């Protein structure tokens, strides 16, 4: 957010050093401030120049002029002038304030805070500066400082609602919950009885619920929170929220009967399709532990308690009774009320309800039906259910078999009699057959039977060639079967059916990026950007992260490292902006009393760097810098090749190639510029917009500047952010290891290994790194004592075994267990070779003799395995051949596998 | 026969014209020229050119246009040279007709009155807007049908009261028989 232009300077410009300006100039100065606030910068400059003509060393005018220039995007001049002004009048709070504002607009918040504090030392009761300071403090999460500043403000001006609420909020955020409550209470006491702030209405309601939330945050204080809900019930307008809180407190207090009653009230208010409320209902009925409810509330989609943990038959019966006698009869139209009991029954009862459920979906035409059905494929792991995703697990699942058999039965009945069940009275509309074929294809996808799935979709497209969903699914299957270019064709064809369908347009763009067709992808997505100017800039302004991430990966796949970095940096910049966006809320939310939502936003912002998109951008950046570090020569591809070692003929040829490349590149660049210019001209008329500074996208579009940075330092920087904000991801620690080991930071690498082991000790990526580490130990440059510790810790990770034994044992396990995942097998085979435990040919057998029951078997993992096999050298060449044959048979659509 | 399917109608424009190609490709043995698609996508509203939607997908389409009443029927049906007729017709040159260029329903959706609903909606459009400037000179609705297509002839004559007009010989180029009837119905 740009710094607000309001009232930076109080009415007395002569303050400081006691050198007041004469009346005329003093009035001019007031005008300068006024025009600045009204954003009439040219006038303001003119007037400050008039003052400076007479008093060239007037500090405050110099500072103000600097501030105005800053608003006119003349940053360097601005800094010089403000500093000059400050030098001339170090004792002016105006100068310090302006200095702070300047830093703030550079997002240099710590410096800005210092400057504000300096200004306050001179004028400690200046409300405006105090307010600006408090904004920065909350932005920077200087919570203790924030409390003090808000306290000062409240002391100076205790008749404003905002000042009371901000002080209460400050106390809340610093953990002084009782303090926060009493601030709110004192504030309420200052209000006369019957005033609008105390009667039923949005602000009173929000404040009451905010107070209630703080009460509940006090340990073991649910009783008081519960009582307070009854007290404030009359002013609260958000009754749903009140009821949900009440149910929660009653549940936590063990008042299950009351809690259940309250939950029924919540349903009555219309939340019957909220699966979280259903989980709460079930936990209440079964009187389960609080932890279980907390976990159940984190489930997504239509998942509820019985799909999270295994319940006893008795518990299931209790729940089933409750749904059959209480919920379903009251809400017979509720999808959730019919959907949830399906997770409580088995055998014929499950079959029957499934039958009804699927047929309903097929007649209606529900594209997500398959995904919904897959949520019945539960696997128990460490006492909790997970949804089976690996085709091996899916195909073995009895419910998968049941569903497939049912759908096959529907298909054959439909094809013979246009009915789903042969005993049906009426025929189905033709679309039912379309959706049944579509569902069958989706089930094939779950079982990795791509060719069979594609055949189903071809039938459904023959049936209804205008069914865009069928094109989309077919594209997904063709892609999974290994033909990304073919998938692009299919989905682009589907997209063309309705060029106003943004969803399918975006999907097409994604597929094109995956296929390395970035120009075409831009062409497609540009159908939905502004039709003027550079679409890339428009996408950047819209913060279209998925596109930029896809394009980054696309460039990285083509080894265009600079361009890829550029795209990732754009996404990272979006997150800086998201963080910056908080500024808008600090004053607004308190004014509007949306305190609950505001504290949620603050919490969200604290975890911002743990979001998926940020993670992807940072991880992509780290990987590129690691590549650059490992092979710095990749940066030199644009330079002249080394001619000295070539023969004359080779030289000639190489030069000709280089020249050709250069000409092509220049041509392309010129075309791009021309296109851009044209579109800018067409879209012109913005008047004066053209001299604006270049957007991030246009500056250094190929990321050449980014490539000049120290690769390891950049990688370290991002890896540190990820380990702080995404500690639960395997990938965070994989990268941390990869960065640390290159920086010779042995202990950091070791820490990463421990974290990886804790997260998943059977993952291929962990095994790869622990073996790498164990093999490298002798080469570490470190003192004997440290080395001993490292060796000891590493031995702990290896379970006390030598690295050879460790790997041999894993190999034995893999050979005896056919479902051992392919990526793990590949890593074990590689490790057998690097530790010289087995010959290359023998090690290769861990991969090539894996058979069809391997988990995580897909085109990508097959490619990785191929890469390892090829690395084994000539001794394993027979294995390479064998592997290629195996994969080609498995994925006949793969065209470039070798 | 299955139950009737009550379809919804939607307009055809340049953003969804590909769906018309899909329907036509699946329904007709002849390929239509680009000028036909251009005419359809430029047509205003969904009065004369429309998709039939069932359950969210296009399952059929009807495309008609307004043209001079006595437009030379011996010309090829889909690509007529407009400048030719303008002066030919003397006193009648202000009278016009609705000419149904195509009516197609995907095979899986036939026999459920979708075609009839499409034709009826064109007739309804005429009824409701017959005094509008575009339609005020229209006196007839016309189409051509291959002489061997008994189902279609029955459909138009029995359901909608069309009359069988002259045989036009060698109307089609690539299909056999190449002759067609002109079917028409007086509208006022």
Helix and strand arrangement:
The complex is a heterodimer of chains A (898) and B (188).
Chain A: H1 23-37, H2 41-54, H3 59-71, H4 75-88, H5 93-105, H6 109-122, H7 127-139, H8 143-156, H9 161-173, H10 177-190, H11 202-217, H12 222-232, H13 239-252, H14 256-268, H15 275-286, H16 290-296, H17 313-330, H18 335-339, H19 347-364, H20 369-374, E1 378-381, E2 384-387, H21 391-396, H22 398-417, H23 431-446, H24 450-463, H25 468-480, H26 484-497, H27 502-514, H28 518-525, H29 535-541, H30 545-557, H31 561-581, H32 583-592, H33 595-606, H34 612-630, H35 648-682, H36 704-707, H37 711-725, H38 730-742, H39 746-759, H40 764-776, H41 784-797, H42 803-816, H43 822-834, H44 840-848, H45 859-871, H46 877-890
Antiparallel strand pairs in A: 1-2
Helix pairs in contact in A: 1-2, 2-3, 3-4, 3-5, 4-5, 5-6, 6-7, 7-8, 8-9, 9-10, 10-11, 11-12, 12-13, 13-14, 14-15, 19-22, 22-23, 23-24, 23-25, 24-25, 25-26, 26-27, 27-28, 27-30, 30-31, 30-34, 31-34, 34-37, 34-38, 37-38, 38-39, 38-40, 39-40, 39-41, 40-43, 42-43, 43-44, 43-45, 44-46, 45-46
Chain B: E1 8-11, H1 17-27, H2 34-42, E2 49-54, E3 57-68, H3 82-85, E4 96-105, H4 114-129, E5 138-146, H5 150-160, E6 163-168, E7 180-186
Parallel strand pairs in B: 4-5
Antiparallel strand pairs in B: 1-2, 2-3, 3-4, 5-7, 6-7
Keywords (chain A): Repeat, TPR repeat, Transferase
GO molecular function, one term (chain A): transferase activity
Biased composition (Basic and acidic residues) (chain A): 663-672
